[in-house]
């Protein structure tokens, strides 16, 4: 994770507490700026997160069952042990995400940018169809040069 704070650009920026309140009310978070927030352990089940900015956020242990993450940016987000079963990941940016232990059973994945430097497309297909949790591989120092 980056140590430099991400600048907030407009009035669509929310804090963790504001996100919790929106989730409690079942409100859409479409287009909101949640970059760099610690949102670990929250329940986003069925929530509209289309075009949401979640880059570099901590989403570990969070649940996104049936959530719409279409066109959302999760670049470098921590999704360790998160649940994305039946979520829509159409056009979602998941590049450089930590998806270790993540569940994506029956997720709709189309045109998504995936962390293929750590996963194979077969790993993704297997996790979607069988429900097995994702296991990421490390890039060796030799291979990364």
Dominant shape? globular
- Report the span from N to C terminus: 21 Å
What radius of gyration results from the CA coordinates?
Answer: 15 Å
The CATH class, by name, is Mainly Beta
Q: What is the CATH third-level topology name?
A: Pectate Lyase C-like
Q: What are the secondary-structure elements, in order, as H or E?
A: HEEH
Strand order, largest beta sheet: 1-2
Share of helical residues? 10-25%
Q: What's the CATH architecture? A: 3 Solenoid
CATH superfamily: E3 ubiquitin-protein ligase SopA
Q: Strand count, sense and closure of the main sheet? A: 2 strands, parallel
Unreliable segments (pLDDT under 50, ≥5 consecutive)?
A: 140-145
Q: What is the tally of beta strands? A: 2
- Computed structural class: little secondary structure
State mean pLDDT (0 to 100 scale): 90
Can you walk me through this structure?
There is one protein chain. The protein is low in regular secondary structure and 145 residues long. The protein has a single domain, classed as E3 ubiquitin-protein ligase SopA (Pectate Lyase C-like). Helices cover 13% and strands 4% of the residues. The chain is built from two helices and two strands; from the N terminus they run αββα. It has helices spanning 16-24, 121-130, and strands at residues 88-90, 108-110. Strands 1-2 form a two-stranded parallel sheet. It is globular, with a radius of gyration of 15 Å.
């Amino acid at each position: 994770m980056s140590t430099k704070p991400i600048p907030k650009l407009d009035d669509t920026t929310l804090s963790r507490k504001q996100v919790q309140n929106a989730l409690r009310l079942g409100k859409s978070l479409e287009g909101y700026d949640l970059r760099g927030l610690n949102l670990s352990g929250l329940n986003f089940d069925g929530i509209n997160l289309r075009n949401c900015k979640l880059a570099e956020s901590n989403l570990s242990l969070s649940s996104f069952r049936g959530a719409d993450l279409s066109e959302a940016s999760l670049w470098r987000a921590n999704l360790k042990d998160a649940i994305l079963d039946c979520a829509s990941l159409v056009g979602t940016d998941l590049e450089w995400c930590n998806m270790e232990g993540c569940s994506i059973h029956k997720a709709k994945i189309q045109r998504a940018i995936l962390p293929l430097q750590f996963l194979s497309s077969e790993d993704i297909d297997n996790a979607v169809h069988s429900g097995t949790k994702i296991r990421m591989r490390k890039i060796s120092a030799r291979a990364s040069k």
